Every structure is written in structure tokens, then in C-alpha cells.
Model the fold of this input.
Amino acid sequence: MEITLKQLSPDFQRLITEMGQSNESIIITDEGTPLAILSPTPQKKRAAFGCMKETIQILDDIVAPAVPESAWEVLQ
Done:
């Protein structure tokens, strides 16, 4: 069964929101007997490789020395 958040009572909406933020399950009981467990959906993990794609811009030659060779003490 699937229902929207708007179809739930305001108290239940608050509980669902808190569950999503805390990433903890909610156990629904009747006189101490568990009836159902509501769990947040698993979050998709972003891959580490490529996670910074399109966040930087290369403005110059990244292979050339940052300072001219004439400034290198080792070459003098």
C-alpha cells in the first residue's frame, strides 16, 4: 500500500519527518505488541570517483612550472 504524506495526520507527518532526519525506524505497537515497523528508505551513496566533476575550472597549463625556470635555485 502506498499513500502520500498529505494523507497522514499532522502528528504522523511530524513523526515521519523526524524519522527521515534521524534515520531511525518507528515501531507501531498496540498494547505493547509490535504491529509494524516503518523504516526510512536507504539513501543512495555517491561514488567517490567523479564526485567533484564539474566543480573546478582549469584556467592555465597544469603541466608547466608555476614559476619560471630562471627562479629555480637548483639550476643556477
